[in-house]
Design brief:
Structural class: alpha/beta
Number of helices: 12
Order of helices and strands: HHHHHEHEHEEEEHEEEEEEHHEEEHEHEE
Strand order of the largest sheet: 3-2-1-4-7-9-8-10-11
Number of strands: 18
Distance between the termini: 50 Å
Shape: globular
Radius of gyration: 25 Å
Strand content: 25-35%
Length: 387
């Protein structure tokens, strides 16, 4: 799909409605039939857009995805709607009324900001991507709040806006980019733009950003949705130096209290697996403090405790067995307990879960979870179930 324009015509829109629920296995037959009445290029574009909309449901929901326009990169790289809505609420609650959304992509963040009542200038240098953002603002009835501009973000004057939001490209020809100065635009440029904003800024960065790369005048927030870490955000104009982990839905937010590293201790009755955002934010000590626990190993983010203290920031498991790593012993134990549903989790172990599952060949009606990890430096297996 090289041009959205034909899909925005009455014929293109009608064709999109017709192919909306096309089963991928039936595409060839559908295309053959439709090409008798419509241009072949238009049919191909409509079917391609239908595939993208189906993929986008996971991020945008069926209602919005069924009305929006996507590019392949746009579906892959756009922000999940729930995360974008959370960020937009933070901005609205801070009194921000206008935002320059730089590197806007297909407009997912601009849509969330506009729905929060914020006026948005959405900028992207790629013509096709900017066209999709413009079409999406119109399709969702938000064109009155969203202006889309095709331009290089480094040439845009943001002086008339309360805040800036920057989502630099973090993928290149060889995949993900981990060097923040290899972002497009570089993180240093985005930080400078953030510092010039009158009311504040938010910079979306990879969740693996090193803590030492976070500017001293920024707040760093790691966000997960449904247990999956989605992004990190550097906030300016909020709480310089603050570190937080936010879990969606909710939101539930855990703030750093600069606690010392937890003590290493023997396995207790319960094991707590912190949410990925908590781990990325280096807030495992805060979870250990909440549950009165310590670490199984100084280098591994598993917390152990003697009592059950439910917390939204970690999943609790009751541990029934603690063994040195030994596949034969694990296989015998699982056979004895008739465990056929086996969940394998690992931290600090080179063993792959599928490899272990093939070796132990679980069979039976019962379920168990095995943790492959280290206890005070020694390879170990902890067996249990969700508490």
């Amino acid at each position: 799909m090289n041009d959205l324009a034909p899909l925005l015509t009455p014929e293109g829109r009608a064709l999109l409605d017709e192919v909306r629920d096309t089963d991928p296995a039936q595409e060839l037959a559908v295309a053959t039939r439709l090409r008798r009445e419509h241009p072949a290029d238009l049919v191909s574009a409509a079917l391609g857009q239908a595939r993208l909309r189906q993929r986008a449901v996971a991020k945008f929901g069926a209602e919005d995805a069924g009305r929006m326009f996507f590019t392949p990169n746009g579906v892959e790289q756009s922000t999940r709607a729930s995360v974008a809505a959370y960020r937009a609420r933070r901005m609205a609650e801070a009194g921000i009324t206008s935002v320059a959304d730089l590197c806007c992509g297909i407009g997912g963040d601009a849509i969330a900001l506009a729905r929060a009542g914020i006026r948005v200038l959405a900028v992207d240098r790629d013509p096709q991507t900017a066209a999709a953002a413009r079409a999406n603002a119109d399709a969702l009835g938000l064109s009155g709040l969203v202006e889309v501009r095709e331009a290089d973000v480094t040439d845009v004057d943001t002086a008339g806006f309360d805040a800036v939001f920057v989502d630099p490209a973090r993928r290149g020809g060889r995949g993900r980019i981990f060097d923040t100065e290899a972002y497009s635009p570089p993180l240093s440029w985005a930080v400078s733009a953030a510092r010039r904003a009158s009311r504040g800024a938010a910079l979306k960065v990879a969740p693996g950003i090193p803590h030492e790369a976070v500017p001293e005048d920024a707040e760093a927030e790691w966000i997960s949705d449904g247990g999956d870490v989605k992004e990190a955000v550097l906030w300016f104009g909020t709480a310089p130096g603050a570190i937080r982990a936010t879990l969606l839905p909710g939101p539930r937010t855990l703030l750093s209290r600069d606690l010392p590293d937890p003590q290493v201790r023997p396995p207790g009755r319960y094991l707590y697996e912190p949410d990925g955002a908590v781990i990325r934010a280096h807030l495992v000590a805060e979870v250990a403090d909440q549950v009165g626990g310590g670490l199984l190993d100084a280098t591994i983010a598993y917390v152990t405790a003697d009592a059950l203290h439910p917390t939204p920031y970690a999943t609790a498991y009751e541990i029934t067995d603690h063994l040195p790593f030994n596949v034969k012993k694990l296989k015998a134990l699982l056979r004895e307990r008739r465990v056929g549903i086996l969940t394998v989790k690992k931290r600090g172990s080179a063993v792959e879960p599928e490899e272990l599952r093939k070796k132990v060949k679980p069979q039976g009606p019962h379920a168990a979870t095995v943790f492959l990890t280290r206890v005070a430096g020694a390879p170990a297996m902890l067996i249990g179930h969700p508490a």
